[in-house]
Amino acid sequence: MARASLNGVVLAESAAVETVEGTLYFPRETVRLEHLEPCATRTVCPWRGVATYYDVRVGDRVEPAAAWSYEAPKRRARRLEGAVAFWKGIDVEP
What is the DSSP letter of 72? Predict the structure, then answer.
């Protein structure tokens, strides 16, 4: 069971993660969305599309742009649609 957490608070947990280039993508329904706050950060991947980022908040701690999702991925990355990945300060255990 893969898990993402911050300060001991579980942000996402699932056995059905997608792994792409070493990054775990959690199905949206397994993510505690109350800890994600939209931010202005966007990036573009040539084969996945536009990534939308979120600040991750647990109590008073905020990790800026520490989660992202492909809301409308390109055809080759369709399996990632809506899934959420974490990095930068977030503990991710495969």
Answer: S
| Amino acid, res. 93 | E
DSSP state for residue 70 in the 8-state scheme: B
What local confidence, expressed as pLDDT, does residue 34 receive? 98
Cα–Cα distance measured from residue 49 to residue 29, given in angstroms and rounded to the nearest whole number: 21
User: What is the pLDDT confidence band of residue 70, given thresholds at 50, 70 and 90?
Assistant: very high
* Alpha-carbon gap, residue 43 to 7, rounded angstroms: 27
Task: Find the angle CA(84)-CA(53)-CA(47) to the nearest 5 degrees.
Answer: 70
Judging by beta carbons within 10 Å of its beta carbon (0-12, 13-18, 19+), is residue 27 exposed, middle or buried? middle
Give the C-alpha distances (Å, rounded to integers) separating 26 from 22, 57, 83. Answer: 13, 17, 5
The model carries a pTM of 0.95
